[in-house]
Please model this.
Amino acid sequence: MHGKCLRRRRRRSRTGVGAHPAGKRGHMDIQAIHDHAVQVLAGKVPGTDRSAARALFAENAARGHVGSMVILGIVLLDGVHGPQDIPAGVVWVRKAADAGHSEGEFLLGMCLAEGTGMERDLEQAIVWLRRAADKGHEEASFIFAELARRGHSDI
Model:
């Protein structure tokens, strides 16, 4: 589930900032660092190890960039270019959801629905999926509709 979300997120992310070398991070603004990390993760920055993207997303998420929180959550949940850390992934997904990011809301809803890194809670899953769906998140809309159709019994 999460790997699919990461691939979709990569396609949605803005491109064109990959020309900044990682050594000049201090001179880049928070969005530029995020965009650069997306390029590194996608393997579009020659001479840069893709695993370096995790550190860039972590740095940026700690500075409050909600998009970086989402991607950091995904890479930690899935163990992309580094060890899997489900509890930490859930923390970052929840922070993004609490900040109102629709992808964070969707991912938190899915973690709650599946019991990933937390106890399964369909009622809370529905709350978060509905928030994401209300913001136009297509996958959340579909899953929310399925849960409603099935009477919340199964995902």
